[in-house]
From TrEMBL, chains A, B:
Belongs to the FAD-binding oxidoreductase/transferase type 4 family. It comes from the Bacteria. InterPro entries: FAD-bd_oxidored_4_C (IPR004113), FAD-bd_PCMH (IPR016166), FAD-bd_PCMH-like_sf (IPR036318), FAD-bd_PCMH_sub1 (IPR016167), FAD-bd_PCMH_sub2 (IPR016169), FAD-linked_Oxase-like_C (IPR016164), FAD-oxidored/transferase_4 (IPR051264), Oxid_FAD_bind_N (IPR006094). SUPFAM superfamilies: FAD-binding/transporter-associated domain-like, FAD-linked oxidases, C-terminal domain. Residues 37-216 form the FAD-binding PCMH-type domain. The keyword Repeat does not apply. Pfam families: FAD-oxidase_C, FAD_binding_4. This is FAD/FMN-containing dehydrogenase. Its cofactor is FAD. Signal peptide: none annotated.
Amino acid sequence: MSKSTVIDALLAELGADLVQLPAEFGSRKLHDWSGLHGAVPTALIRPRSTEDVARALRVCHAFSQPVVTQGGLTGLVGGANALGGEVALSLERMNRIVEVDRTSATMTVEAGVPLQVVQEAALDAGFYFPLDLGARGSCTIGGNLATNAGGNRVIKYGMMRDQVLGIEAVLANGEVTSGMHKMIKNNSGYDLRHLLIGSEGTLAVITRAVLRLRPRPTAVATAWCALPDYDAVTKLLACSQAQLSAGVSAFEVMWAGYYDAVLANLPLRAPLDKHYPYYVLLESVGSDPDRHAEAFEAFLGDMLEAGVVSDAALAQSEADAQAFWTIRDAPGEYPKFIPHHSAYDVSFSISDVGQVAAHCEQRLQERWPDALVMIYGHLGDGNLHIVVDIPGSEGRLHDEIDRVIYDVTREFHGSVSAEHGIGVKKKAYLGHTRSDAEITAMRLIKTALDPRSILNPGKIF
Amino acid sequence: MSKSTVIDALLAELGADLVQLPAEFGSRKLHDWSGLHGAVPTALIRPRSTEDVARALRVCHAFSQPVVTQGGLTGLVGGANALGGEVALSLERMNRIVEVDRTSATMTVEAGVPLQVVQEAALDAGFYFPLDLGARGSCTIGGNLATNAGGNRVIKYGMMRDQVLGIEAVLANGEVTSGMHKMIKNNSGYDLRHLLIGSEGTLAVITRAVLRLRPRPTAVATAWCALPDYDAVTKLLACSQAQLSAGVSAFEVMWAGYYDAVLANLPLRAPLDKHYPYYVLLESVGSDPDRHAEAFEAFLGDMLEAGVVSDAALAQSEADAQAFWTIRDAPGEYPKFIPHHSAYDVSFSISDVGQVAAHCEQRLQERWPDALVMIYGHLGDGNLHIVVDIPGSEGRLHDEIDRVIYDVTREFHGSVSAEHGIGVKKKAYLGHTRSDAEITAMRLIKTALDPRSILNPGKIF
């Protein structure tokens, strides 16, 4: 059928209020933060309800019309970009907090609610929603679910899938799977929730979710630690998890190369006077401010005495803690000093991370002796971020750098995507992490649930 | 093809060491703890390796021969029973601990390792494996994965799916999906691990797993609390989670009817002198024995002063704590005094649990005035266990009692299986918890991954 026929059918079914044509897009943002080229969707559907989504998908299914679902468009792998011929489905109008249930410690939301709105509503209700990432103001719960978002506090609270008790989703044919349960335990048949979470819009459109709220931590302790070698880093991780009683809420490692480049290029204050091979931003949360601070300080003292930590600065105020975090959050400022850098999000067994970092650095610098290699990450999750800049390359070496990093990832049985997803950007490397049998199984599931391949085609596989 | 042809092919492929015929079964246990009638398998395959499992399934797939996978046979819903015509595949010989990786805090195991062996190996290595249930000595990691086992410490550590970083499994056609990763973060394509976990042997045979180990808690505080009403119970839950700093490792509620029946029928000591409407066994773990005990006692004092708790006994020794747990674990002794009871494992929104319990009790006693109704559960997970005995019924009323309990479960949007699975026993009630669209999606996935329906047919759906 011709394109105009599908659009006509969508307009007839949903009305002009819900269906916009490209002439009406104006300056609307249509692509994510990946920097990848994306196409302009042939129409934009903005449903107000799950039933609207179901009606839209029934029409698209009937016409075998591809659909790309969009949330806050803050993804980094092109997962929400149109590739050509898709209609876009934006959940921006489904942005209501439906309920906060204080007894069950749950919040029921529509998929279009921005993450920060959920975080704030949780605090207002006396709770805490732990998922946190830089894009919090723009990214939406639906996007967080579609990509199984991670972030800094996974070590304590887990990823997005661990923050969700139930989801409602619309399948490719418009059928609504309503699993809006509030229970932690629910072993009744296959866990479709976990299959849909992280499937990047290729299996269903997630429309609503029951989020799990946590007790609000009332004590936070933060330290900037300097360490002599990588063994000391893993030792600090193990000791902090054993001795800080499940309080460890961030364990952010920075290699010297990262720290030096950040301090050299951004107007930041060094937390310590001297220079060391490794730095760790350690954060622990608890419920009793006095006891917590005391235990944290005692722990740091033990680590200094044992030589695990060479030196440390303890945050005496929120401003101190914020200053430490600013160094860790510097990647947001990279565009200012290395606009053409390549950035990676990979994960490994914690016991391999030190070697992996050394291999990557060595291979890159063998090939490009003046390569700037900045390595940092969430060590408790085995998650490394690697940023590479080859001066003068002007971005022409992205593919070659990809191959170096992803080959090391394959050698160490790592994941080519720790938290960003596969999207378009990492499609060629999915087989570095998943076996043929796994990818075949994924494709069988995709075909079973979306036989006409209308949901976000061209992504993941 | 005739049955003997398949068996011949299995014998030819695997040899007599791996394939036993019924004449050789002797007194071997063939059925689970559900009490449901099961058939005798036509053969028993006992592989020594993943490759053996793959070879066995390739033959079964070629002959469209149904297979039932068996672990420790401690399930409660008939999920591992043969129904007629299956060969059984027991992973009892794949019982090796392959590796303990102290830096990554992981343990790699074969699926046939008993849970208790894993728990003990974790302690020996200075770690803790938190999954725990009564069948620990017999149940296996493979069975725990196939059923997504729960237990008492889910409130702090999650269910079995939260204890696993990677799994290896063999699909119906003998293909091996090897996802033995050690990372917490791995967003590369669909999460097959979470789909296979809890699928009760119907989608694949799980052969190996990478388990996540936790720091060993070095402080445990336990109290037996008496409460005046259900609101106080939910208040104690919320306050303990907010104030005991993620330490709450068990929150076991017992209704008075449970407590009275247990104390009347078993030789146990009452922890408190008086009688109350609700009891809670509260346990909290930490890493600093002195501080932890002090904080726990202060918290209990606050709760007593606020009237949330009417009275409480604090365990002064491990023996005291054990005595409290013996009251909670009394269901293991039910066969002695109510051999024909019906037992339920359901879950609800925490805010509904009080009403659900009242409804169940009322409806049962309206219909059978002398019904004994014993209610207890893991409140933090919304998980209720309900035990019903109708004196003189000799077990003839199971189906009618099922209908009462599961109708209430449907009315309150609960789950007909919190932690036991569906198996055969709850098949008729799956639709009480899952929508038609969800069940259709599950069937599509089943058909996609196991087109000849050889893996545990007749279970779940």
